[in-house]
Design brief:
361 residues; globular; eight-stranded mixed β-sheet; 15 helices; 17% strand; three-stranded parallel β-sheet; alpha/beta
Amino acid sequence: MTTFHRMGRLSGRVPLVGIASGRCFAGNAALLGCCDVVIATPDASIGMGGPAMIEGGGLGVYRPEEVGPLSVQVPNGVVDLAVADEAEAVRVARRYLSYFQGTQDSWEAPDQRLLRHVVPENRRRAYDMHTAVEALADTGSVLELRGAFGIGVLTCLVRVEGRPLGLVASNPAHLGGAVDRDAADKTARFLQLCDAFGLPVVSLCDTPGFMVGPDAERTATVRHFARLFVTGANLRVPLVSLVLRKAYGLGAMAMMGGSTRAPLATAAWPSGEFGGMGLEGAVRLGYRKELAAITDPEERERAFEARVAELYEHGKAVNAAAALEIDAVIDPAESRAWILAALDGGPSLPAERRRSFIDTW
């Protein structure tokens, strides 16, 4: 029996779509997991072993509905797209496959002036990155994958002037935009998908860095985060990066393929800010003794804010551009034009296939 071997060999060669409706256990689940994208209906139960196998192994008695329902398989990342019924599953599958069929001649663009109002004036306020993605892409062209998993980064298929692209974007509404383990895994795998099928990638960056601390390290972040650097450094397709606000630390480097100079082009909106780590943290560390010496709490807070303001001025996008760390600071309303100009001015995709398969995770 060579079914599983042959299915695995298809990875990276042709787009693979799996649809689960009802019970999907054992070998069927293994074949489903080999697919690039998994679509599932509400009645789907997905598991590497069904109730009979579980009971036979002495692991208890369960109803099929208790083994891998969507309430489990959507937030854990197994299911990319949850749909209402089989008819919608087929429609979504066709829509997904359309991104690998070339440029569409007919398209509409949202009012690009809306992009000027995406990032709040208060640099500490969160905002919905979906608003930026929807305004940047052609109307109705955004298909987000794994939206309920690894929510620190959005992974979407989009079109700009009919041209299909992959898009990754920080999510400042979750952990302030910090990249955690699941977000890193999801992003690295999505980059592989785009690389395998020749979709250029747009990265929208607004992150204070990677999620750190003892709790984070218990999730093996060193290995998971490194996937982003290794994957980004070996992309065959062009990557363009646009900094919307924060570009701090290793997390920002990972969102840009490992360096501000790694993308084909890197630009920022005027709200962009750069640094080795978040401004507040940098001040607390770098000026710890100075701040501790101030006994009056209000005066200490004023001194703290003054130092933050100094670092903010130094790390503004215009200064990063002047130091040639990035290519340009652009009007947000010109983002679509800048992305297309960067891609059109870059090298053509090589004919040879470099990625032999797409990691299932």
